[in-house]
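Write out the 3D structure for:
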Amino acid sequence: DEQLGKLSFVSALFPEATLVFGESSVETFAVPVSGGVVVHAWSEQEPYMSWRTSSQQVISVSAGEVMGVYHGNGDERLVQVRRDDGLTCLYGNLAEAFVQPGDQVHAGTCLGLLMPDADCVFELRDDGRSIDPGSFFAR
């Protein structure tokens, strides 16, 4: 049906629109920290999300391959995971990383521990371009 084709096109561009029209096929992620509260929402000027939590463990939001573990500012570690669909997840403010490049991870795999008193920072990229991960997180 022609109308269904239009709806599929709209849901690909605006996943939240399917909340009005029906089921969404958009995969949802678990939050990368348990008990986290969003303290920074994604914007084009600051393209990341962050959560404040009392938990130190940072988990992978989905399956993929660890592409890198990098040094950030000071003692910070960053972990980069590439999903099978090509999206890249970046996790920041880690004091310690439990993974290394080439590791295969699953949703829920502990990637490392947060730095003391630091927020968990997450960025989602598509072909190197930051995209808003908000619609991917379960509500």
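Helices lie at 2-13, 18-21.
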